[in-house]
Write a structure and sequence with these properties.
Number of domains: 2
Structural class: alpha/beta
Strand order of the largest sheet: 5-6-7-3-8-9
Number of strands: 13
Order of helices and strands: EEEHEHEHHHEHEHEEHEHEEHEH
Largest sheet: 6 strands, mixed
Length: 302
């Protein structure tokens, strides 16, 4: 499979602050990659390096085997910044015309308006658009130049449920065999809907990477719910990470559900009403955040 984006041992410093540390990432053509991490994890810095806005301190970044600084490479990138800086005084049509003028093979404005359902907004000034409408326009602008690489930084932030799903549907429609998409979002269910592979950044490092199925399966673990009066014995079983009482029920979080269930069945503990819910991406990210906080608290103060 051909590689679209490759980070090779990339470090990035801003004065004495290390924003990225020894980052190795390969993103394949046609792939939708979910880039996750807490605020300050390095996501925005990574995207800015891809766009050629900032340079790595050490290591190399290649897009289709070339430098992000190559003007021809930049024409192949479309992006929606987290704060979609669209000129408020222009109409939707004027904004699309303006952005399209910067690309050598831009799509006709009328085609963009039709595909993204912007007919009713075509003559409306950006200042009069709602948050959901602006996000729709922002995604459209990212696609004006027929990009081979689409960078979507928090494309649904601040939207209500209906507007979010409208924007997600627009993004899904942009997936293509030769188009690579990198998307960040604090709405983890959005990532589950869009991405085929996940990279998790933590304190500037790649914490984990792999297919989405791993993060909503083995890595995310499971929640086991049951009725039992033997909480302490259950908490001592292998794989029982946390045990919480919820009324008459016990809820057990386990990173290794198969091992926990095997231990439970062989323990002789009396229980009833057992249910197992496999974990979601949110469960894994909560574990990452807790682990990061623990590691930070254990570091000596300097």
């Amino acid at each position: 499979m051909k590689t679209a984006v490759e980070f090779d041992h990339v470090d990035k410093f801003f004065r004495d602050v290390r924003a990225l540390s020894n980052v190795d990432i390969a993103v394949h053509r046609g792939e939708v990659l979910g880039l996750l991490g807490a605020n300050g994890a390095g996501k925005s810095t990574l995207l800015r390096i891809i766009q050629g806005v900032t340079q790595p301190t050490r290591g190399s970044v290649r897009l289709w085997g070339r430098s992000p600084a190559d003007p021809l490479v930049r024409f192949q990138i479309g992006s929606t910044p987290q704060d979609d800086a669209i000129p408020l005084s222009l109409t939707t049509t004027e904004v699309i015309d303006y952005v399209g003028a910067h690309y050598p093979r831009s799509r006709p404005t009328r085609e963009v308006i039709a595909e993204f359902g912007l007919h009713a907004l075509a003559r409306r000034r950006v200042s009069r658009l709602s948050g959901g409408q602006r996000r729709r326009v922002a995604v459209a602008l990212a696609c004006v130049g027929r990009p081979d690489l689409l960078l979507l930084d928090e494309p649904t932030t601040g939207l209500d449920v209906d507007a979010r799903h409208e924007v997600l549907d627009l993004i899904k429609a942009q997936r293509a065999p030769d188009r690579t998409v990198i998307v960040t979002s604090h709405y983890l269910e959005d990532i589950e809907m869009l991405a085929s592979r996940i990279v998790v950044l933590s304190n500037g490092r790649v914490r984990s990477a792999g297919p989405l199925s791993e993060f909503i399966g083995e890595r995310a673990g499971a929640r086991v719910t049951l009725q039992s009066s033997e909480r302490h014995r259950i908490a001592a079983l292998p794989g029982a990470d946390r045990v919480v009482e919820k009324g008459r029920l016990l809820e057990i979080s386990t990173p290794t559900p198969d091992a926990f269930l095997e231990a439970l069945y062989s323990s002789g503990i009396s229980f009833a009403g057992l249910t197992v819910e496999r974990g979601h991406l949110e469960d894994y990210m909560l574990e990452v955040i807790r682990a990061d906080r623990g590691a930070t608290s254990e570091r000596p103060l300097r």
